[in-house]
Amino acid sequence: MGELRAMNTVIVALILGGLTGFLVKQRKAIHKHLDRITFYSVLALPFFLGFSAGANDVIVKNLHSLGFKAFLLSIAAVLGSVSASWVVYKFFFKSTE
Questions:
Q1: CA-CA distance, 10 to 32, in Å (whole number)?
Q2: Does the pLDDT value for residue 8 go beyond 80?
Q3: Is residue 62 within 8 Å of residue 68, measured between CB atoms?
Q4: Is 28 buried (19+), middle (13-18) or exposed (0-12) by CB count in 10 A?
Q5: What would you report as the CA-atom Rg of the chain, rounded to the nearest whole angstrom?
Q6: pLDDT of 77-88, one tens digit each?
Q7: CA 32 to CA 40: how far, in whole Å?
Q8: Dihedral angle at the C-alpha atoms of 60, 65, 70, 74, nearest 10 degrees?
Q9: CB 53 within 8 A of CB 59
Q10: Are 79 and 86 in contact (CB under 8 A)?
Q11: CA distance 5 to 52
């Protein structure tokens, strides 16, 4: 039941954010700071994920048993995300000048 509540909270937050954006889209003063706010909000997510992992004694004590495969999987996931982002940017967002 907790997972469903968390999912509903995320969906409600997304809908409220969309409605708020729609209602304030004409206010340029808000848009001027939105990129910076978004950047730091997204930057806070991996920070707090690392913070909670570092504070978890079970994870810290078993860190040695995660091994080289987990490290490679993490690197591959990051490289895959960067590559996919580059492809999406190149085909959908790059100006055609």
A1: 25
A2: yes
A3: no
A4: exposed
A5: 19
A6: 999 999 999 999
A7: 14
A8: 20
A9: yes
A10: no
A11: 21
CA 87, chain centre distance (Å): 18
What kind and span of H or E run contains 16? helix 2-23
The full DSSP string for 25-93 is TT-HHHHHHHHHHHHHHHHHHHHHHHHHHHH-HHHHHTHHHHHHHHHHHHHHHHHHHHHHHHHHIIIII
Q: Is the dihedral of CA 20, 24, 25, 27 positive or negative?
A: negative
| Range 20-42 average pLDDT | 85
60 burial class (0-12, 13-18, 19+ CB within 10 angstroms)? exposed
